[in-house]
Amino acid sequence: MGNSSSKKNNKKGGKGSGGDDGCIGNRRVRTIILSILLAVFFVFAAPYAQGSEEIFRDLADAGILGEAACLLLTLQTDGCEEWANAWAFVFAGAMICIVGAIAAVLLFLIPNCDDKLGRVAGFVLIVGGIVYMIGWIWLIALTR
Fold it and tell me: Model pTM?
């Protein structure tokens, strides 16, 4: 009844095999491509975050004229120190994600390092993403 033996022999690659997991493309190639795209995004986003953090940090240190400029930029009287700290979180998250994405690409290019050390790179990406999101949530909270 049916061809049940063909289902047993059609193995797509189990957990930890590094092969095809049934999705589009190979897992290794997909991870390398997504890590490169993530690194490119953060490479272009990091200068904006760093520049914004530097502007607000300089305004916080400028005294009364800096406070007036900060009031014009943010329309709030809280000062620029919190804005600088929030942009610092965004920048730190971007840098952590760049390091994690580059590590993921390098570790997945080495044939024997994709399982254990690749998970470490994934953890670094998760931590960087959380820090990046905390920075943006902080910035959204400051604008409200």
Answer: 0.75
